[in-house]
Amino acid sequence: MKTVINEQNRRNFAAQVESMLHDKLAKCYQCGKCSAGCPVNFEMDYTPNQIIKMTELGMEDKVLSSKTIWLCVSCNTCSTRCPKGFEVTGIMDVLREIAEKKGIVSKVEKEVQMFHEVFLDNVKSNGRIFELELVGKYKLKTRHLFRDMFLAPKMLEKGKLKMHGEKIAGLNQIAKIFKDFE
Amino acid sequence: MARIGVFVCWCGSNIAGTVDVEKVREEAAKIPGVVSALDYKYMCSDPGQNSLRNIIKEKNLTGIVLAACSPHMHENTFRKAAAKEGLNPYFVEIANIREQVSWVHEDKERATAKAVDLMKMMVEKVKRDRPIEDVRVPLNKKALVIGGGISGIQAALDIANGGVEVLLVEKEPSIGGRMIQLDETFPTLDCSSCIMTPKMVEANQHPNIKLYTYSEVEDISGYIGNFKIKIKKKARSVVEKDCTGCGECWNACPMHKNVKSEFNVNLSERTAIYVPFPQAVPLVPVLDRSVCLHYKKGGKCQKCFDACGPKCIDFSLQDEIIEETVGAIVASTGYDLMDTSMYGEYGYGKYKDVISGLQFERLLSASGPTEGVIKRPSDGKTPQTIVFVQCVGSRDPEKGVPYCSKVCCMYTAKHAKLFAHKVHGSQSYVFYIDIRSTSKGYEEFVRGTMEQDGAIYLRGRVSKIYEDEGKLIVKGADTLSGNQVEIAADMVVLATGVIPKKGSDKLAQMLGISYDKYGFFTESHPKLRPAESSTAGIFLAGMAQGPRDIPESVVSGSAAASKILGLFSKNEYEVEGTIANVNEATCVACFYCQRVCAYNAISKKEIKDRSGKLIKVVANVNPGLCTGCGACVNACFSKSIDVKGFMDDQIYAEIKALAV
Fold it and tell me: Which of B173, B363, B156 has the alpha carbon at shortest distance from B285?
């Protein structure tokens, strides 16, 4: 697939990412150490280093609709090992944020995106995660009602699924964080 | 009657561990003519050498065989020891039973048998040794430097500062070479002409340097210490000693639009009478007779002559041939850029705004055609987007050359950097295959171009460049992200590969030095003798040897100079006596030997009788040039050539000793 580089668009996109990331895209060596160590790389359509290069080249559409940004589990292996100290995990966050704001729904990884939404809603209302509510809402949203059901007894046994949720004390502060972001 | 001494060395356990040294000694003692046989732990040690010397004295030896390590190690040691006892050093022979036996074999019995064989062969050889005298060649302590670029200038200055007279010959009207064409230099960004012109002036004013610009070496013969050279000083049509460099002549010249400036790489025009650039050394113009109207129209135009104050223009000046004798030569002829017109897909020569790296240097340079303002050649507009393409011609075995031109990565990074500094808000894209930035401060420099100056680097080659609505559309690939990319550029700069200077192969043939398949001069040894050519007395410097940057060129110039000063610190040059020897009585003058000699060591010699009548012509070996390689011996049909120390009868005796 050919990409025509439009200088102005490239600059705008790269500048937006850089200002949100507080890091420079040009820092990247393109050595690939991030991709080499990424535990979910096998499922990604572009490797993390490709995402960085494509962002630098202003390939906005490709990057924002990629599977990669939604598959990243933010484990930080890449950032920890990067020889240039580049915020690889950070760029995934930034790109997800831009995609979300632009309303670009990843066709392939719709469910991951939904999970993020449910997760944030959960945090917003409780200040922490209430697993049962999270699972329930996620299942309703994705309509995969019976998937992974056999995991429930195990989770119950280990005390990972509580019947009653708890709310944290400083909910107003959580609300402020969300408000600041919005 | 031969009185041979055989000395078998143990080399600790190096030899004795695998070879039964006592057996070798016993076998030696049985050979007729061997009057003494000894084995010792370390023959090269002082006690070992002393016992060798004592036995020479006691037994009055006529020849010595050392069954020991390689002659590369200690032949000289033992020769010196023998010479101290009055024995001709060439009566010492080495049977290499370490590198050729103990180190490469395991079976002790068979290794010992081989060691005995090698020892026997050398005993038979040494019986037939004749005394050989080393050859001494007188030295003319004057040096010739061919090529007045940075490496040549550095070599000339270093030699001259060492108190030796130097002739510096430059083909162009001014010295300075390629470096003076450059704008700023990586990685420090100091201005090239600011650091180069003082050196040029110093070379011009140095009492030990005689400068020949607009001159070429026409002929070279002779050998180390005694090179006879002919320099053709092309007619300048200007009397150098009277010229003040005022510029009245070139201002008056009517030919100011038609001739492309070589110095500005065709980006501007020059007059028929011209100095290539304002800082030229010497600042004396040259009249280009191929375009001058005076010569073309039968003497009608003489505007420069009329304008000249000191009346130093002389249309009748002729080429001059200067003959000199020098003792050593530095070949530093430099490089050219490849012709990239075979890359039709890049459109060099077709699109005005596709230019070479050297042309971009001239656009950047304050003394260049645009006075340092970056303007594109087609319409003079300042480009906002430039695409740089690396490896154009280099690393392309199909159309170009397979080697890396070494300087392009760095100068492209510099170009992108200077472009960002000079045109604010501009953007450069660099297509590369690999970035080679290995010297001090280079990697940081390239990273700076990317990280601070915002150049976008794309790993991949460009496939096609074409023009569309005033833009150059560059189709390339970014192999890192796996995308085909297309960039609309205002200008494209090709990092063109370097090749040896045109005509340097001819010069190499004249000098009798070897060059590789691309035409770069080859070193005597790529690692251990990098400043020497294959011919004694001829040294190499600069890009003529292969791609290198300015610091390396300076180092190589200084290296060549220090070799020459070292050579000249003695009055005579000593050559090993094992050189070819012609039997004049049997030589049939076919001169096959001359054709195979790689060192130009064989010439024709006329033998005349007392009345001066020519009797015959024979081959003659120049001891200063001969290396004793033996190629002529093999080529000789009439078996008239032998190499001293390796005569036929000796070789046959060795073979016979092995057969028995």
Answer: B173
